[in-house]
Amino acid sequence: MQLRLENFTKKFDNLTVIDQLNLTVESGEMMALLGPSGCGKSTTLFTICGIHRMNGGTLHFGDRDVSNLPSQQRNVGVVFQNYALYPHMNIRDNIAFPLRVQKLDNATIAKKVAEIAELVHIPELLDRKPAQLSGGQQQRVALARALVRKPDVLLLDEPLANLDAKLRLEMRSEIRRIQLETGITAILVTHDQVEAMSMCDRIALMKGGKIVQLSEPDQMYNDPVDTFVAGFLGNPPISFLDAQVNADVFQVGPSQITIADSLRAKVNGAVKLGIRPEYFGPQFGTGITGKISFVETQGREDLYNVTLPDGSVLRSIQAAGPRLKLGDSVNWGISHDHALAFTPDGARI
Amino acid sequence: MPRFNALGFGFLAPALIVVALFFLAPVILTVFFAFTNMSTSTGITGGDYLLSQSDLRGVKASGVSDETYDALENAGYLVDDAGLARLAEARDQATADELAALHSGAKFDARRDMERALKDLRDNRIRSTRDRKALAELFKTSVMDERFGSEAAFRTALDGVGIPQADQDILVKEAYTGWVWTTENMKLLFSLDSSYRYAMNTVIYVTLTLGFNVGFGLFLAISTFYLSPGMAATFRTIWFLPRILPPVLYVLMWKWFTWDTGFLATITGYLGIAPRNWMLDTATNAWVVVILINGFVGASLGMILFSSAIKAIPSSMLYASEVDGANRWQQVRYIILPQLRWPILFTTSYQTLSLLTSFEYILLSTDGGPGRATEVWALAAYHTALNNYGGNLQYGFGAAYALILVIIGIAASLLYLRFFNFKELVTKPRIEG
Question: How far is the C-alpha of A205 from the C-alpha of B238, rounded, in Å?
Fold first, then answer.
């Protein structure tokens, strides 16, 4: 079911947290609300499920206007960061709770609980108490409880934040699998760009209560609208260099970087260059000289920081090779087609 | 390391002293008192030896010989050397000599006859009737109505009137006015109908007050939970007032509220209902008032405990229940109440004990009335031992009442300790992925 948020405004007392936000999530789509702490992503999620009231704007699930409905009547499923399982009920009762409060008969409840337990792979845990489950298992129970009454929208609030790294990887694909199998419209709130990129169809990147960019993950990565988006996505992060347009080249200190054909007509004067670590290294020839100021080996890959003569830093990630040491001088090249250009105040050129 | 042990003991000492002074000592004293017949008339120290007319009935029943009983009951007046010596000392030798000449060795059954004998004196006339009465007493041979400071003095006196040794032991026991060890208190306690009525009253009082406490406390906690913080704080403060008011003032306000010229009577007066004392009018009224007075005090404690327990429920859990479709009532019924199970059990058991032993609000309001309708066990103990209408404070019997409470209290405490198995209460958090 399509979810449509129009001109949504949210105030806490006199502080406007979100001003005139528009967001449409298509039916069956999984949308990520990504952003740093305090960007308004959780506020948006809690407003969609009805825990927070809107101060302005409308919210539609399909054709149904739910702007003024209490959360009980919105038919949304929510997975909370701490799962919010009811500690005094066993797993079966936890999952059955949304059906129980609708006063469905026991046979129907039992059938639906069994189905959903099958879907999230926990049929053997139904008689345990939440305290007897591991984090990943609790996560599955929370998903089952959110999905059991076939909600119009599934909302996930930082669902992986409380898991260790290995389980996080596993649950990432599990949540996506369950979302695809049920075909439910879903919104994932996260501050982790890897989660957003790996799990979702589209990402809405938020900052200061506004959506800065809304696009598919690879497009957002390769074609960011400004330095904030470019800097938020990618790990290790993008490096920025101050450059001057000098005929056909960007002049960075003594070094020169060729301007890609697509950019040549648009740039002049001072620009900010964004170089992702995978586009800087010896495989791209030479031209940029500097000293290694940081080395980190990640097994399959090595990560280097190179400090240029003017003090700016470029990052490089390369397949593990001959280990360079701190202080070694290098002369590496840049894949100039992939250099992103921004105006000095951050907008993409 | 004995030095550290001593240090630990030192730190514990204040607590140990307090436990000994305010818990052990009262318990031990209660047990001790409960098996004595201490009362106002016996005192709590030793006593004198005194045979009174009323004691005589007991003496007869305890099987002394008839001669002894006769000697005691019909003790007369004998003009003997000892009596004459006393007379000589009280008046003068001449008087004594004259009486000896007239009546030496004479025996009179009644004082009147002795007085007449004194009237016979011519040379040393005793003119005042009052004096004659007093002097007649000097020749009394009875040990009745005379106070002896020690057993030895009493026995000497008994010897003096010729009571055989065998009967003396019985008389010594009967005449002793101090306290003695006895199990009579317990027997009496279980034989009195009033004991069972007080026990029943206590059951009614504890059950109803507890129900009101917990129920109203829960209601306040849950209803204030759904109010805005400022309003909730205001309401909680208002409902906390009964607890922080001095009990005397608090109960005085209730009395004013229910007096026959008080608030309630005035209001109902407008409705044409004759003014009455709404507190003491009927037993039912008295019970309602007693339970409300105690209930509002107790409810405030429950309110605070339950409020903080509700606040401890993670807000996301309440949000979750809302988006799961639960309305307010279902949220309270299925999410909040089940998680208040332990606070409710704790409050219930804690207040059961304190209600069993507390009586101050009843004492101040109805004082057990009307009649003995609201007399609970603890109040009965107080009335018997410390505030008896008859004036004879029966410390021993009162302590016997209290001892029953001590036994119930200790048994209940042990039961609760087992029941509130704290190891089970605190489940270990599972920290894993």
Answer: 49
Residue with tokens 């926990």: A122
DSSP state of A260: P
The answer to the question of residue B248 being in a domain is yes
Q: At what angle do helices A91-100 and A135-147 cross, to 10 degrees?
A: 20
B248 and B378 within one domain: yes
State the Cα–Cα distance between residues B209 and B374, nearest whole angstrom.
Answer: 13
From B321, B427, B433, residue closest to A134, measured CB to CB: B433
A&B contacts, CB < 8 Å: 80
SS3 state of residue B45: coil
Peptide bond into B370 cis (omega under 30): yes
Other C-beta atoms within 10 Å of A180: how many? 12
pTM for the predicted model, two decimal places:
0.73
pLDDT attached to residue B282 = 84
Q: What is the CATH number of the domain that holds B280?
A: 1.10.3720.10
- DSSP lists the bridge partners of residue A252 as A255
Residues within 8 A of A (CB atoms), B 312-341 only = 314, 316-317, 319-327, 330, 334-335, 338-339, 341
Number of C-beta neighbours around residue A225 at 10 A: 17
- Residue B336: DSSP 8-state: I
Count Cβ atoms below 10 Å from residue B205 Cβ, excluding itself.
Answer: 25
ipTM > 0.90 (yes/no): no
Domain boundary among B175, B208, B237: B175
Query: Which of these ranges, A49-53, A115-119, B386-390, B396-400, has the smallest mean pLDDT?
Result: B386-390
Q: B62 is in which domain, residue-wise? A: 53-175
**Is the pLDDT score of B424 beyond 60?**
no
**Hey, what are B339's tokens?**
């998680």
How many helices and strands, by DSSP H and E, does chain A display? 9, 20
- Return the SS3 of A84: coil
CB contact under 8 A, A50 and B324: no
d(CA A168, CA B305) in angstroms, rounded, equals 39
Say whether both B211 and B102 belong to one domain.
no
Give residue for tokens 């760009």. Answer: A193
Q: State whether residue B228 sits within 8 Å of chain A by CB.
A: no
| Residues 6 or more apart in contact with residue B253 via CB below 8 angstroms | B245
Do B166 and B203 fall into the same domain? no
Chain A residues whose beta carbon lies within 8 Å of the beta carbon of residue B327: 72, 101
Rounded CA separation A195/A174 (Å): 12
Can you tell me the distance from the alpha carbon of B332 to that of B338, in angstroms, rounded to the nearest whole number?
9
